[in-house]
Amino acid sequence: MDLLTIKHRPDSEDAFITPDGQLHLRLRAKHGDINQVTCIYGDPYDYEDTFVTNATDSTNEATWLYQAASLVPTLCSQIFDYWELTIQPVNNRLQYAFLVTDNFCDTLLWGERRQVSDTATNRNDPTNYFKFPYMQLTDAAVKPAWLAETVWYQIFPERFNNGNKNNDPSDVLAWNPQAHPTRTAFYGGDLQGIYDQLNYLANLGINGIYLCPIFKAPSNHKYDTADYFQLDPHFGDAATLSKLINKAHQLGMHILFDAVFNHIGFESTQWQDVLRNGQQSPYYDWFLINNPDFLAYATGAKQINVGEKLPYEMFSYEKNMPKLNTQLPAVQNYLYEIGRYWLAEFDIDGWRLDVSDEVDHRFWREFCQQCRDIKSDCYIVGESWKNAQSVLAGDQFNGVMNYPLTDIIKGHFIENKYSQQDLITLINEQYMLYRSQVNECMFNILDSHDTTRLLTACHENVALEKQILAFTYLQLGTPCLYYGDEIGMTGKNDPDCRKCMDWDTTNWDTDLQTFIKQLISLRKTYGLLIQQVNLRWLTSLALPEPLLEFQYSDGNHSLIGIFNTTSTAHLVPSMPGYTVQLQSGYDNTLLAPQGFVIASK
Q1: Which of 1, 45, 271, 456 has the most CB within a 10 Å radius?
Q2: In Å, what is the CA distance from 575 to each residue of 207, 229, 522, 561, 562?
Q3: Helix ranges restricted to H, 400-445
Q4: By C-alpha distance, which of 34, 42, 38, 29 is closest to 71?
Q5: Per the database record, which ranges form the Glycosyl hydrolase family 13 catalytic domain (predicted)?
């Protein structure tokens, strides 16, 4: 038994309270090293007196009353196995330890402080148990009930649809989906244009809209916010926004706003006041200024050199995006009010928070709490490109942009740098980083306003794009489609990925659009099954296999996915009782390269 590989931490992804008040436990061990794991658990106050007689004396001994339950092996990787169990305590308190048995039938009692032999004396030692003194339901990571069946559609408002030419910028260009936009180009997309196409989105099956920022800002992307309480006048007014949100809600859609609170824009009232008045400005402390000559850098009179101390903190080296001091109460209150305002006044359904991993945790805890005080089931998702455990413990975000999963999927399907076994290992390890309800809230994207479009990344291979979309929509998390992907739009990295939406239906890939409509329907139908039961891989980790297979089953319903990521066709195993729900490249016998089949029973 390799003791160094065994891991369990309470109050973490290894031991967490579920939204229904149960306790979910995980234990990690070396792959193939452990034969059985049993949890002994009970109320830490439940003892009974036992009368013990020996040759010289008789005494009363307090014996702890416990129960035993077996952990189930769930996911595994090339390095580790994971064992899991969910417990419903009689009372909201619990202590527990593990009996870990290896392949040679040797058993250790694995406790919080020691790993000891399994004896009655050791089982009765209260000092060696993991403990939840009281299970507070408010400590559970929350998930909006509506999220499991939601499929998002990301809209870059300036490029989706121009519905009101009266609010176009003065330098607006003619709408041209074939043009390669520059970073400064305007095409006139607006809120009225989105409103006009809500029925199009509903017909596609979309029931969640993620809007890139719509607040007042000079750029086309609006991440350089000038005023968080005003809509950009080129996008429309409050009446148009209310009309849009109300109709979206009537169609069963949720609305996710995008905001960046790490920094503010050059044209904001606060930063302009600092530029005019320096240290005399009431907003001077709103920013993190390192150099008394910061004005020269802000105006471009002096250059900011890579590697040198920044004259003032900013996003990347963007001098027009000064970082906000979120440890200052005045800044905190200003930003908290923004979060509350749009939830309360316009009934939005959540926030996507840009550059969230550069803002302190104390601020996010309070921001999220104040938002949930307004709307308890709002969805809050952060932008993070790394391990995000520190913001996903239940007191901050529901989920984050799931870029690691995106990289894993592309690494196998497009770049061929990961084998099937690598793919399974990396996905399983990714899932085991977080609590179960957090995995359900991860925001799964394959492309966005920041990245190359999926079809372009696939070298315009539509079969490959379909395969990747199908695989992703069968994963834990909430999937998101980038505008125009459903009709075959292409585009390299930012800004080319921000082309105008093509509303000329003669240019559409209608076969792809029909496929995506079917895929969205399938995801909404089986979303609860995918979110609520354990993923089971049917492909072996030990040896390379021709097909990538996995399954979700709750005993009553089952969903199976089979994918061919090799260069030759392969025979699909018999699936008695299953009905094919969606396929590409499958002739009921053979599965073509870049093909897949999804079946249910």
Answers
A1: 271
A2: 32, 56, 19, 11, 11
A3: 403-413, 420-431, 436-439
A4: 38
A5: 154-523
Q: CA 236, CA 216: separation in Å to the nearest integer? A: 10
Identify the pLDDT of residue 58: 63
Q: Which two tokens stand for residue 305?
A: 């050199």
At 466, the amino acid letter reads: K
* Average confidence score pLDDT of the chain: 96
Q: Which residue has the tokens 């006041």?
A: 273
Q: Say if CB 261 and CB 335 are below 8 A apart.
A: yes
Tell the burial category of 156 from Cβ atoms under 10 Å away from its Cβ (0-12, 13-18, 19+): buried
In Å, what is the CA distance from 31 to each residue of 34, 75, 435?
8, 10, 21
Please check the confidence at residue 50 and state whether its pLDDT lies above 80. no
CB 44 within 8 A of CB 128: no
Q: Which amino acid is at 420?
A: Q
Cα–Cα distance, 528 to 514 (Å, whole number): 23
The C-alpha atoms of residue 32 and residue 2 are separated, in whole angstroms, by 10
362-366: average pLDDT: 98
Q: Both tokens of residue 126?
A: 């209260």
Tokens of 453: 């479009």
Question: What stretches of 141-237 show up as alpha helix (H) in DSSP?
Answer: 157-160, 191-196, 198-204
> How do residues 461-516 score in pLDDT, each as one tens digit?
999 999 999 999 999 999 999 999 999 999 999 999 999 999 999 999 999 999 99
pLDDT tier, 53 (very low <50, low <70, confident <90, very high otherwise): low
Other beta carbons within 10 Å of 493:
12
Question: If we measure between CA atoms, which residue out of 333, 336, 343, 338 comes closest to residue 369?
Answer: 336
Q: Provide the annotated active-site residues.
A: 354, 383
Is the distance from CB of 90 to CB of 23 less than 8 angstroms?
no
274's CB contacts (< 8 A; 6+ apart) are 281, 283, 284, 286, 287, 289
Q: Which domains, and CATH codes, for the chain?
A: 15-139 (2.60.40.10), 155-261+326-532 (3.20.20.80), 263-325 (3.90.400.10), 535-600 (2.60.40.1180)
Compute the distance between CA of residue 214 and CA of residue 235 in angstroms, rounded to an integer: 7
Q: What is the DSSP letter of 543?
A: S
Number of H helices, E strands in the chain: 15, 28
Distance from the Cα of residue 591 to its chain's centroid: 31
Q: Please provide residue 445's backbone torsions phi and psi, each rounded to the nearest 5 degrees.
A: -125, 150
What percent of the chain clears pLDDT 70, i.e. is strictly above it? 98
Distance of CA 203 to the CA centre of its chain: 25
Convert 169-199 to b/e letters by CB count within 10 Å (16 or more is b): beebeebebeeebeeebbbbbbbbbbbbbbe
CA dihedral of 71, 523, 195, 183, whole degrees rounded to 10: 80
CB 309 within 8 A of CB 325: no
